[in-house]
Amino acid sequence: MQAETDTSLAEIFDVVVVGGGPAGATAATDLAKAGRRVALLDRAGRIKPCGGAIPPRLIRDFGIPEHLLVARARSARVIAPSQKSVDMPIDGGFVGMVDRDVFDEWLRERAAKAGARRITGKFQRLEERTGGARTIVFEAEDGNGAATERRIKAKAVIGADGARSQVARQSLKSSEHPRSVFAYHEVIRTPSKAAAGGDETGEAADYAPTRCDIFYQSHVSPDFYGWVFPHGETASVGVGSAQKGFSLRGAVSDLRRDSGLDAWETVRREGAPIPLKPLKKWDNGEDVTLAGDAAGVVAPASGEGIYYAMIGGRFAAEAVDAFLATGDAKELAGARRRFMKAHGTVFRILGMLQHFWYRNDKRRERFVKICDDPDVQRLTWQAYMNKELVKADPGAHFRIFLKDLGHLFGFART
Questions:
Q1: 53-54, strands of its sheet edge to edge
Q2: Distance between CA atoms of 377 and 385, rounded to whole angstroms?
Q3: At 218, phi and psi to the nearest 5?
Q4: Residue 399's pLDDT is what?
Q5: How far is 19 from 291, CA to CA, in rounded Å?
Q6: In this predicted structure, what is the pLDDT of residue 284?
Q7: Which of 67, 68, 161, 202 is the most buried (most CB within 10 A)?
Q8: How many helices (H) and strands (E) in the chain?
Q9: Whole-prediction pTM value?
Q10: What is the per-residue pLDDT across 369-386, written as a single tens digit (0 to 9) for each?
Q11: 201 and 191 in contact (C-beta within 8 Å)?
Q12: Average pLDDT across the chain, whole number
């Protein structure tokens, strides 16, 4: 479906969702299904740099069809600074892999089929609320490629426009800037034999089509990690870092060379900031709330964002729907409250993990060693696939605690 650009409409929408990624598209779908008049405003040609991993719970909860999965990773391999590696097989599960250009467009189309009106344009600003509605100003291209300023009105706005959200900056009037890493990846084409487990280039490519590789090495990233994720006919090779001056392109180039992937065709290159801490406030107390990267909901340590964006979009939709039903702007705070109740503890734990274990190569070496523990692997995959902490096995948690102390104080062998 072609998104609209002619929006000289007198209609006042119930909601305008700014940003058509997983958070915005999910919010638009849920609100349209609830019978609200929804406009989904999104820029043309935007593809977010992303490893593209989604857990089984996302697939179940959000009705993602099988054809969108380009690969199923059955294991992960973590690589230490010493080049020692640990394989972490997923017993009875998988990590689904999606291509963000195809995946995001499918989500936007689902929103349109539910009744949301798609509008292509670049958000510019919010004007003062008058007569119970907010004016949203955006820039659209006319048929000749010239930019034209347009306006639409809505009773509520959801800002799902990314880590550098202009909606957040304008509506919340806050100086808060979420802690972020900058992520950069290169999408490369996998040779047909390599995709089946071989290598038609004749070179030794350290790559498996059903395995995610994660590199905890300071030359790859001084404060985060690097990755090679399978995507069927392509693969994502990327790194993240918050350190100014660190060459992300250089790190990806080195990672490709060291993995034997430098000869594989580069399809495209992408980069963007990734927030790693939820904002303290998501709404303006009047008619705006945030979702996705705009709210800062990407998991620390792992950088996982798609599931948290979509559940955050769902909570934003519920909060806005309640606001529209009651007229009480306090309902807008429900999006953050519900999210933090469900996932705040996980974010705090992952934040502490990243702060401590990613600090230097000595600690990264110990961290990879911890990943070799069967209890750690089992609980990690259960928590990842189901998106909740595992509480049913206190014995395993206690064993992990004792082992962590050993690694923390250097008693454990590395």
A1: 53-54, 95-97, 71-73
A2: 12
A3: -65, -30
A4: 45
A5: 10
A6: 95
A7: 161
A8: 11, 17
A9: 0.89
A10: 989 988 888 888 888 888
A11: yes
A12: 87
